[in-house]
Design a protein that fits this description.
Blueprint: E1 5-11, H1 15-26, E2 31-34, H2 42-45, H3 77-91, E3 95-96, E4 101-107, E5 110-115, E6 119-127, E7 134-135, E8 149-152, E9 167-170, H4 174-185, E10 190-193, E11 201-202, E12 205-206, E13 209-210, H5 211-217, H6 228-234, E14 240-241, H7 245-249, E15 254-257, E16 260-264, E17 267-270, E18 274-275, E19 279-282, E20 286-287, E21 317-319, H8 336-349, H9 352-355
Parallel strand pairs: 1-2, 1-6, 2-3, 6-21, 8-19, 9-10, 9-19, 10-15, 11-14
Antiparallel strand pairs: 4-5, 5-6, 7-20, 12-13, 16-17, 17-18
Helix pairs in contact: 1-8
Length: 375
């Protein structure tokens, strides 16, 4: 094989991939970060313009570099993107942008990572693409006339994209509620469609302390996913944070409807309601897409990797940045560092794997230790 064989390739240059890069540099890995975007922080810049983090500055630090905003401040998407750019500049990571990965497979125990223009080889791969891949919309959305403006929340930037007239925001999570609030404040007639009858919302501060301060002090941020409480919390609908949903629904130009179920006779139908609208915003989440992984029995029935804190059955393949991968913070800006440190430590324990002469690759094997320990 004439191509250079790297120690590690990281797929994704978001916060998870960059936290992983930080720790790989500490253990002297020869690594490369690949990302399909044209710039660092691009995924953040593509989200709606008024987006702000739910977590204050003190909970947004990546390893080795503090987020440069005052304590108690809630950064916007532009500040997050700039922080990621500054982080890359500070640590001078080896990154290749505009590299969409189509396939990851093994050839003689070396990973082959295929992009649209290049092929890269490494002894380890860390998949840091996050959980948000394919925007989900219900099948009947394809039958809605073109005269009605439809956007997924991934495509929504600001109210100027919409036509005059009523807007239905479908989805009762943080994204849907934040967008509905923005549109209501711009005097749009808004229908918020969700099967949630009693929204659970939490303020950003309680008794002078941020909500995340309380989460940390009560131990909720460190609850493990495989504990009884973790299993319960990870399967619950997350409460809306920082938006007073009761006050939003009390506005004269906001109507609450149940789940959208179809479109007929120029009206959008809900479980309990019908209405004519000019715009629909689908804040209906995403489906995972790990089809680039060319390995059998690696994904569960929901399409997510079967792994324990980022470690899977395929030696040398790791995951980071998945929701509830280990704790509530596993997919957050300030929480990815702990999982990155854990994975790097496991790599360091298997240091021989990256140092073995290339001609012997595939002739040796080791039993992967899935025993988890705390960072």
């Amino acid at each position: 094989m004439q191509e250079q064989i790297l120690d590690t390739i990281i797929i994704g240059a978001g916060q998870s991939g960059l936290a992983m890069a930080y720790y790989l540099k500490k253990i002297n890995r020869n690594f490369l970060v690949l990302d399909g975007d044209k710039e660092i922080g691009g995924a953040w810049l593509k989200r709606w313009d008024s987006l702000k983090l739910f977590t204050p500055t003190e909970f947004n630090h990546l390893p080795g570099m503090h987020f440069p905003c005052p304590k108690g401040y809630y950064p916007n998407k532009f500040e997050v993107a700039q922080y990621l750019k500054d982080y890359v500049k500070e640590f001078d990571f080896n990154i290749k942008l505009k590299q969409v990965v189509f396939a990851i497979e093994k050839e003689n125990d070396v990973f082959r990572v295929e992009c649209q223009d290049d092929i890269f080889y490494s002894k380890e791969v860390v998949v840091a693409t996050g959980p948000f891949h394919i925007p989900f919309t219900p099948s009947f959305s394809k039958n809605i006339p073109k005269e009605i403006k439809q956007l997924h929340s991934k495509e929504y930037r600001n109210p100027s994209q919409l036509q005059k007239g009523a807007v239905c925001v479908v989805g009762g999570g943080d994204s849907g509620v934040q967008i509905a609030k923005e549109l209501a404040n711009q005097n749009f007639e808004v229908i918020l469609a969700s099967d949630q009858n009693n929204f659970r919302s939490l303020p950003q501060s309680i008794l002078g302390k941020t909500l995340w301060w309380w989460f940390e002090k009560t131990g909720l941020l460190s609850v493990k996913v495989n504990s009884k409480l973790g299993k319960f919390l990870s399967h619950q609908m997350q409460p809306v944070i920082g938006t007073n949903v009761k006050a939003l629904l009390a506005k004269e130009n906001v109507t609450k409807a149940r789940r959208a179920i179809g479109f007929n006779n120029n009206t959008l139908e809900f479980k309990d309601y019908k209405s004519s609208v000019k715009n629909i915003i689908w804040a209906t989440g995403y489906k995972p897409d790990f089809s680039m992984l060319k390995f059998d029995q690696l994904l569960d029935k929901n399409g997510y990797p079967k792994q324990e804190r980022g470690i899977c059955s395929q030696p040398g393949l790791y995951f980071i940045g998945l929701p509830w991968m280990y704790t509530r913070g596993s997919a957050t800006l300030g929480g990815v560092g702990k999982d990155a440190a854990f994975i790097a430590e496991r790599m360091k324990e298997n240091q021989w794997y990256s140092q073995v002469d290339e001609k012997y690759l595939g002739q040796k094997s080791y039993k992967l230790n899935l025993q988890l320990s705390s960072v």
